[in-house]
Amino acid sequence: MRIDILTGFPKIVEGPLNESIIKIGRQKGAVQIVVHNLRDYTDDKHKTIDDYPYGGGPGMVLKVEPIVRALDVLFTEHNADEAQIVLPSPRGTTLTQSLVTRYSLAGHLVIICGHYKGIDERVHDFYKIEEVSIGDYILSSGEIAALVLVDALVRLQPGVIKDIDSAWTDSFSDDLLDAPYYTRPAEFRGVKVPQVLTSGDHKKIEQWRLRQREDLTRKRRPDLYEKYIKINK
């Protein structure tokens, strides 16, 4: 998989992209991640990527020219006609595990990092862009949201995580939260690991974990539980 990140602030993303699971994915060749500095696509000596909004009001807006120029070059030089372009945005579809799974199966993803008040709306006139929200709150940097998406994508690429079943059974994979997990020691300050988990009976352990997942989801995310019940009636 190839992921291109368009940003005016590359230093925000460069550190995390070279750590932990993302670093492993890159080293193994499971994913190629390229960061593009939008300032390289400006035409003024100050490398300006933002300006005041028409109509007035507070805040700044990312200019249309650098973004479209960067996309033009990307699509020309890297045959990106089939690429999926994603813009982290509060007005986008909520990012879910099912959406992450769909994106993870794409061969090429392009992420535009908004900043300030957002991007010039005309970018949408030149390219088909899917807007995605990571939650009902506002960040000052689209780069942070982009990193959330990248991390979620990379861990699903073949060969990145040793036990891929671990990734595919995480919370939200089937509309249920994950079960509680325990590790050694078997007892700490008088609190013991549930006996079933040390029984060696894998069928009982599987049943226990499913009950735990259902109970946790019902209590903490009734919206997900309702969806799960409808599907599994």
UniProtKB/TrEMBL annotation:
Keyword vocabulary terms for this entry: Cytoplasm, Methyltransferase, S-adenosyl-L-methionine, Transferase, tRNA processing
Family: Belongs to the RNA methyltransferase TrmD family.
Cellular component annotations (GO), alphabetically ordered: cytosol
Domain of life: Bacteria
Function: Specifically methylates guanosine-37 in various tRNAs.
Compartments it resides in: Cytoplasm
tRNA methyltransferase TRMD/TRM10-type domain segment(s): 1-227
Protein name: tRNA (guanine-N(1)-)-methyltransferase
EC annotation from Swiss-Prot or TrEMBL: 2.1.1.228
Main localization category: cytoplasm
Protein species of origin: Caldithrix abyssi
Catalytic class of the enzyme: transferase
Bilayer-crossing regions: none
Alphabetical GO biological process terms: tRNA N1-guanine methylation
Reaction(s) this enzyme catalyzes, per UniProt: guanosine(37) in tRNA + S-adenosyl-L-methionine = N(1)-methylguanosine(37) in tRNA + S-adenosyl-L-homocysteine + H(+)
Pfam family, one: tRNA_m1G_MT
GO molecular function: tRNA (guanine(37)-N1)-methyltransferase activity
Signal sequence interval, chain numbering: none
Primary gene name: trmD
Residue positions binding S-adenosyl-L-methionine: 114, 134-139
Quaternary assembly: Homodimer.
